[in-house]
Write a structure and sequence with these properties.
Blueprint: E1 4-8, E2 29-30, E3 33-34, H1 35-45, E4 50-55, H2 60-65, H3 70-76, H4 86-94, E5 96-101, H5 108-114, H6 116-119, E6 124-127, E7 131-134, H7 141-152, E8 155-161, E9 171-179, E10 182-190, E11 201-209, H8 212-218, H9 230-240, E12 243-247, E13 251-254, H10 258-272
Parallel strand pairs: 1-4, 1-6, 4-5, 8-12
Antiparallel strand pairs: 2-3, 6-11, 7-13, 8-11, 9-10, 10-12
Helix pairs in contact: 5-8, 5-9, 8-9
Length: 276
């Protein structure tokens, strides 16, 4: 039903300087795989096969990662190292990767808008690769959201509860709970001061969006930090129809921060380390 997943990957990754001066933050490794590969694997699990990636200057490593490396593969062919490329080769064989650039940083809304040429007039998913999401007990986050989309056929954002003093870091929603963990959104605010936040339900980097979002973004004015915020665009869409928020099952690690990155690394090492 939804075959395309958009990856906004044009940001500078300033919280990880100096390493991100020459290395995309989406390529930071968690154990032996870069963050963006975890996101692509989650999208493939949910049934998607076309990955649309919004890049910027200095992001060539992402394109190279999702391509064949003839010299490397020739060097390790027939050795014990060759199976280490099985997972990435499987992704390369199964998926189509398309790219376009966001020339200037104008916010997440603008990055998603730049993807219209890659997505076309169909519903699609959005993954922010520095939000690493894991569900040990069942379907991945996108798979959960796809099931919800099949029922409601509307835009959906993934949410989680955060400490009230952390709302200034997130888009925050308010709404009516129509089912367990499913909210019909009545208000969305980008990075509100804790005193102004309507709830502690914060949006994280997983979205299902209908193609109407492109027209809505085009007609949305810049908001917080003079950037085009996807939160503002979705609020405009909610006024015209239905936008849902889904409290997902699983864990999310903020790998855009050093603390979250280290936490994710330790968690996955304890989960998979013995198999490495």
């Amino acid at each position: 039903m939804i075959k395309k997943c958009l990856f906004p990957a044009a940001g500078y990754g300033t919280r990880f300087l100096p390493v991100t001066k020459a290395m995309p933050k989406e390529m930071l490794p968690i154990l032996t795989k870069p963050l963006i590969q975890y996101g692509v694997e989650e999208a493939v699990e949910a049934g998607m096969d076309t990955m649309a990636i919004i890049t910027g200057r200095g992001k060539r490593a992402i394109e190279d990662h999702f391509d064949i490396s003839y010299e490397l593969e020739s060097q390790i062919k027939g050795t014990s190292k060759e199976p280490l490329l099985n997972e990435i080769r499987s992704l390369i064989d199964r998926c189509t990767f398309t790219y376009t650039r966001q020339k200037t940083m104008k916010g997440l809304g603008d990055a998603i808008y730049k993807g219209e040429a890659l997505i076309g007039a169909e519903p699609f998913a959005v993954v922010l690769a520095d939000d690493l999401c894991i569900n040990e007990d069942g379907d991945g986050i996108l798979s959960q959201m796809i099931k919800l989309y099949k029922r409601y056929r509307c835009s959906i954002v993934a949410i989680m509860e955060v400490d009230k003093d952390q709302t200034h870091k997130y888009g925050v929603i308010d709404g009516k709970e129509i089912e367990d963990g499913i909210y019909m959104i009545s208000n969305m605010i980008e990075k509100p001061d804790p005193k102004e936040a309507p709830t502690n339900l914060a949006i994280i980097g997983r979205y299902i969006l209908t193609p109407e979002i492109f027209k809505v973004i085009k007609n949305t004015k810049p908001g917080k930090n003079s950037e085009l915020q996807i939160t503002d665009a979705l609020m405009n869409l909610a006024k015209k129809g239905m936008v849902l928020a889904y409290k997902f099952k699983g864990r999310r690690f903020d790998c855009g921060s050093v603390d979250g990155y280290v936490e994710a690394t330790n968690y996955l090492y304890n989960l998979k380390g013995e198999k490495l």
